[in-house]
Specification:
Layout lengths: L7 E10 L2 E11 L4 E5 L6 H8 L7 E6 L2 E3 L3 H7 E5 L12 H12 L3 H11 L14 H13 L5 E4 L8 H16 L3 E6 L10 E3 L22 H7 L63
Parallel strand pairs: 3-8, 3-9, 6-7, 7-8
Antiparallel strand pairs: 1-2, 1-4, 4-5
Membrane topology: Peripheral membrane protein
Keywords: Antibiotic resistance, ATP-binding, Nucleotide-binding, Transport
Protein name: ABC-type cobalamin/Fe3+-siderophores transport system ATPase subunit
């Protein structure tokens, strides 16, 4: 599988919420096919920056271009080009589903086939049991599954949030190696982390901790794998949206839940699918003509 990738440029961008700045005066230059990392402690706006760079969060200052098209005028185009594999909180695999159900759902919503799934699984280096509950998988395996399903449609760009959370050192190395392999296909990868990879990757975007923020050990007493109250309040009130672009996992007619920007009235993008283009997810006991009985892709 291969992709032409997508370039992303940001100059002096700032986002604000009801409690003040989410991030301020951020610059970024990401070329097609690069593995870019957004690095910063919890609460510095890493997730929000991923949303902003992909046309899903409104900024109050600065300039963003995706594939040469300026936002917010071309936010819809940006959302098509930069697909989320994992964004916390909100865009994650359903832990109560089995692996085969997640694969089947992604085949319907992203219009991919078993060959695409098999190739993306091999690329990332993951092969979970089809009947395994997603919630029972090791966190590293679960993250790699999300990346593989995101890559199955060969997007121009892929967003991966909180790469290192809950992972021991060996699993982190495995995940970063997989993300490097993804970028090797030409797909642009933008990943957020508090712990950068040990190899030389692409551009690094560092987000400093606000001066008035306490250390991680005393922040709100929250778990590291969920958003803090501060971060959630910052996202609230950033301005909502009339989302129009479906994303993998939400269904053909579902909104892009991470679109926190209005589409520009004059944006000349292709219209989304109408009601006639929708498909229903088969019941679990139905068989697929291109899959084995145990749910594995052939």
């Amino acid at each position: 599988m291969s992709s032409d990738g997508v370039g992303v440029t940001a100059r002096g961008i700032t986002a604000r919420g009801p409690l003040g700045p989410v991030f301020e005066n951020v610059d970024a230059t990401i070329r097609p096919g690069e593995l870019a990392t957004v690095i910063g402690p919890s609460g510095t706006g890493r997730t929000s920056l991923l949303l902003a760079l992909s046309g899903r969060l409104r900024t109050v200052a600065g300039r963003i271009e995706v594939d040469g098209h300026e936002l917010p005028k071309h936010s819809k185009r940006a959302r098509k080009l930069l697909a989320p594999a994992l964004l916390r909180p909100g865009f994650e695999l359903e832990r109560c589903w089995r692996v085969r159900e997640a694969v089947r759902e992604r085949r319907v919503t992203s219009k991919i086939d078993n060959t695409d799934v098999s190739e993306s699984f091999a690329l990332v280096g993951v092969d979970p049991e089809p009947e395994a509950l997603i919630g029972s998988l090791h966190p590293g395996e679960r993250l790699l599954l999300a990346v593989a399903l995101g890559m199955a449609a060969s997007p121009a760009g892929l967003l991966v949030d909180d790469v290192e959370l809950g992972l021991p050192a060996a699993a982190r190395v495995r995940v970063w190696t997989a993300l490097k392999a993804v970028s090797g296909t030409g797909t642009t990868v933008i990943a957020s982390t508090t712990d950068p990879p040990r190899f030389e990757a692409g551009p690094v975007i560092r987000l400093p901790r606000p001066d008035d923020e306490p250390d991680d050990e005393t922040r709100h007493g929250t778990r590291p794998d969920i958003a803090t109250p501060f971060e959630m309040e910052q996202l609230r009130g950033t301005g909502l949206v009339s989302p129009v672009t479906p994303v993998p996992g939400n269904g053909p007619e579902q909104p892009d839940l991470f679109s926190l920007v209005e589409d520009y009235p004059g944006e000349e993008d292709e219209p989304g699918p109408d009601a006639g283009d929708t498909a229903e997810i088969p019941e679990p006991d139905q068989s697929d003509s291109d899959s084995d009985e145990d749910g594995r892709a052939r």
